[in-house]
Fold each of these.
Amino acid sequence: MRPLHRQLLQYPTRPAIHNNVRRRAFFSGFWGSSMSNRGIDGATVWPATRTGAAEADESGVWQNTIAAADYALEEATRIHRGVQSNLKLMQEVRALREELRKAHAEADRYRGMHARVVVSMRQLEEEHAVEVGRLQTENEMLLVRHRVYKLLAEHYGMAALRFDTPTFCEHRDRVLQHVLFQRRKGVALEDIRFRDIAFLLL
């Protein structure tokens, strides 16, 4: 009889046979699948996966996103330029309004000065007219008095009257009233003669 340990080595047990069968099935499937992925020229043809399609879709999304971002950036730049232009125009409008306000204030100031000057000139004209009237009246009275004294001197010289102060004052007042009456009638002072006052001095 053979030794027991040789019998065990020569005849594998059932579990060992089962494991060998599983190994053969695994490797035959591996190599079989590997052989089935080769092309006509022997090159390996890898099965298509969904990763490439997903990457393509993701690339398209990113391109669309970049294009949208570029468009948004252009729009933002255009809006920014528009806002800057509007701000510049608003500043110019404010500056023009300030200049207009200053011009109106200056015009109001000159208008006030002109009004004060006009009032002052009218007041001066009125005062001048009053002063001229007063001077004319005083001049007229001086001319009348001069004419009265001249008429009295001529009459006293022609009549050889003695000079008496009370009598002379009375004669002067009579002649003055007569000359003023003739002036109101429009008679010139030169037209009044000493003969016209002789009856006043009797």
Note: Residues 60-201 form one domain.
Amino acid sequence: MENAQIAPELFHLQPPPPGEIEEEMMLAILNGIGIPGERKPLQCVTFKQPLPEYFRLKEACQSWRLQYSDVIRDVLRKLIPVLESPNVAVREHLERHREAEIEKDRLRKESRRKRHHGSDVEAALEAEMVL
């Protein structure tokens, strides 16, 4: 059984190959990158991305001599209209997500309230004991 161990550095989960939708989206992004557009003010946007994904994106873009920030910007530009007026399937998914987030917020607030009021009750009981 000792010989059956896999060295961690040799084991990497490979992402599945891109599907037709992903390839079509990449073509749309590439078509948009080269088109000069009207100059617009830019806003720096920072977000968290898993480090391995960031390195994969950066390496893939460098191999094609693309700026990864251009790729990210164009992906987001293509998705904004989908969020603004989603089709039925996307809308249903977004509504379920929104409802789940609202419930999480409600539970968080309730938990905070219980912790806050619970400490007030404990303080009042301690004050009574001192008197």
Note: The first helix runs from residue 20 to 33.
Amino acid sequence: MKVSSTNKPKIVKILQEKGEINDELDYALMNYLIQNRGTGYTACQPQLVELEEYIKAIKMNIDSTFVNNKNQLMGLGIVGSLFIDFKSLNVVYCTSKEELEQNIQKLKNAGIKPQPRPKGKY
């Protein structure tokens, strides 16, 4: 599978509603988001899903995050998603930077206030 920011994969089935990823994958995804979408995004809430053509993938939501003046991690909310091929662990889809920014603005316009986030993976 190739990386695409235009064609979001279609989920056929959720194989595992909640799960955890290892520290190495978490670190790799953090670097991917920083290099490809900029700072202020955290991959969270992993799910194991089946995509079309029986492809297993890890779906992660993307939270808009920042550290406040009290050094606490804060999140505005889910603004996008990314999909990781289960076998190769390559990112096969990530919401575009433009769409992430539009979704942040939608949350702000709706009056959503940032909420504290736990340290570590969530």
Note: The beta strands are 11-16, 41-51, 55-67, 73-85, 91-94, 115-116.
